[in-house]
Design goal:
The chain is an alpha+beta fold. It is built from three helices and nine strands. Helix content is 15%, strand content 35%. 29% of the residues are buried. The model has no long low-confidence stretch (mean pLDDT 92).
Length: 158
């Protein structure tokens, strides 16, 4: 079975840095953009600990060029914790680095802990509210990122 939810751009072994802006290509005529919000995540969950928190913004383009400022409240998919496979396999191509703003660090997000049936923060601690942005707790692969982007594209008929 082949993976085709994201197209290969440029492979890299360079580890992402906080503030790295990257592009993804879900279709031959469509690009979307993300940003590394946190590196070396500190978590009680060993699969999440040391990984990368990324946001994928609700902004599309027909070219790779990034032309807008990202709005922290306009995410295409909920925040995800990933490893470096997005970059190693070439599905994410970093092209810039900009400061991670306080408003980006402070958006309301959390993760659904399937085993404990509660929402948790990135550290794995219980949170009492249902966050504005939520995804399953754990390490998200490039496959999960691609599938979530494709699901949103199809739902919105983009």
């Amino acid at each position: 079975m082949s993976f085709n939810d994201l197209l290969v751009l440029k492979k890299s072994r360079k580890k992402p840095k906080e503030g790295d802006v990257f592009v993804l290509k879900p279709r031959s005529d469509l690009y979307c953009y993300g940003k590394v919000i946190e590196i070396e995540v500190k978590s009680k969950d060993s699969f999440v600990n040391g990984m990368y928190l990324i946001y994928i913004y609700d902004y599309f383009s027909k070219t790779k060029e990034y032309k807008v400022e990202f709005d922290a409240e306009k995410l295409l998919i909920p925040p995800m914790v990933v490893n470096t496979q997005l970059w190693i396999k070439g599905f994410a191509e970093t092209f810039s680095n900009i400061e991670v703003l306080d408003k980006e660090k402070n958006i309301e997000y959390g993760f659904w802990d399937i085993g404990r049936k509660i929402y948790v923060n990135i550290n794995g601690d219980k949170i009492d509210n249902i966050p504005q942005f939520a995804s399953p707790f754990g390490l998200g692969s490039y496959g999960v990122v691609g599938k979530e982007i494709q699901k949103t594209i199809k739902a919105r008929n983009i």
